[in-house]
Amino acid sequence: MQEPSYPIPIVLVIGGHDPSGGAGIQADIEAVAANGAHAVSVITTLTVQDSCDVQALHPVPAETIAAQANALFADSPIAAIKIGLLGSPEAAKTVVDLLATHRNIPVVLDPVLAAGGGSRLAGDRILALLREMLPMCDLITPNTHEAHRLCDSDDSDAMEACAKQLQALGAQSVLITGTHERVEDPQITHRLFLSEGSVSSSQCQRLPGEYHGSGCTLASAIAARLAHGEPVQKAVANGLDYSWQSLSHGFRTGRCQSLPDRLYSLQRRDSDEDE
After folding, report:
1. For residues 72 and 12, is the Cβ–Cβ distance under 8 A?
2. Longest dimension (CA), the chain
3. What φ, ψ does residue 66 adopt, rounded to 5°?
4. How many CB atoms are located within 10 Å of the residue 47 CB?
5. Which long-range contacts (CB under 8 A, 24 or more apart) does 33-36 make?
6. Of residues 213 and 184, which shows the higher confidence score?
7. pLDDT single digits (tens) 83-110
């Protein structure tokens, strides 16, 4: 058998399939590729959704999830793991067990708790298992609503207190994205709470409209950067910049939310080469 070669790092993306192509595994693959890595994937849930909202979840059996992951771990040197929609407590427990077996790989957790259209995608059992997963994650990337649900706090509580609680539960670094906070503000503030205790914030211009798949895009871009060996703070900065650019080049394919153009940089490069 021919020995494999690895010209670029490999990122394992674990999440749901979105038939609209806006979020989920397709978003993960595009973001990972645009950031110079190769994505291999484990699908946890088939969904019925469009650019407006999620209508239904059809979880993949836990044994199939484990079989997908074990086949990939046996075949390829995984350089980073990104986790998105889990879809069922059984899937969440399976992922907890997988992470416990592969402890030396950087892990980015995007705790997908609700769809962009508002449908709730995770109940209390999944939340409990996500908290169990936190000590095995190098970075978690909740928005403000997700952060409050994970740390079981009121929306009026300060983000700093919530982040500290998530770190006390085991999360090493916490990036709380501010898109859903103070929506009337023309600037969005993202806060990064690092494992050694330092806190940094970054701002970007709020774009008009609503977007489907921004969280998947960001977390997968960061995972690809970590796979390249970037430290967390640099990977987050590069991931945030890439995600904003993807959103600023976004387009609509349906009736509701716009989709990020995650391949904008590749298309621009091809255009430049043709000139």
Report:
1. yes
2. 59
3. -60, -40
4. 24
5. 33/263, 33/266, 34/221, 34/242, 34/246, 34/262, 34/263, 34/265, 34/266, 35/220, 35/221, 35/224, 35/225, 35/228, 35/238, 35/239, 35/242, 36/8, 36/9, 36/224, 36/228
6. 213
7. 999 989 999 999 999 999 998 999 999 9
Per-residue model confidence as pLDDT tens digits over 238-268: 999 999 998 989 888 888 887 889 998 766 5
* Inter-residue contact 165 to 173 (CB < 8 Å): no
Which CATH superfamily is 10-144+211-274 part of? Answer: Ribokinase (3.40.1190.20)
Distances (CA, A) of 141 to 19, 216, 235: 23, 10, 12
What is the residue type of 246?
S
Q: What pLDDT does residue 81 have? A: 98
Strand partners, 24: 17
Q: What are phi and psi of 267, to 5 degrees?
A: -65, -40
- As a whole number of angstroms, the distance between CA 79 and CA 3 comes to 18
Which residues fall within 8 angstroms of residue 242, CB to CB, at 6 or more apart? 31, 34, 35, 217, 221, 265
Q: How many helices (H) and strands (E) does the chain have?
A: 9, 9
Q: Tell me the C-alpha distance between 239 and 225, whole Å.
A: 8
- Return the structure tokens found at 67: 């079989």
Residues 13/40, Cβ–Cβ less than 8 Å:
yes
- Structure tokens, 152: 């079981």
Comparison of pLDDT for 234 and 189, the residue scoring more: 234
Q: Which amino acid is at 29?
A: I
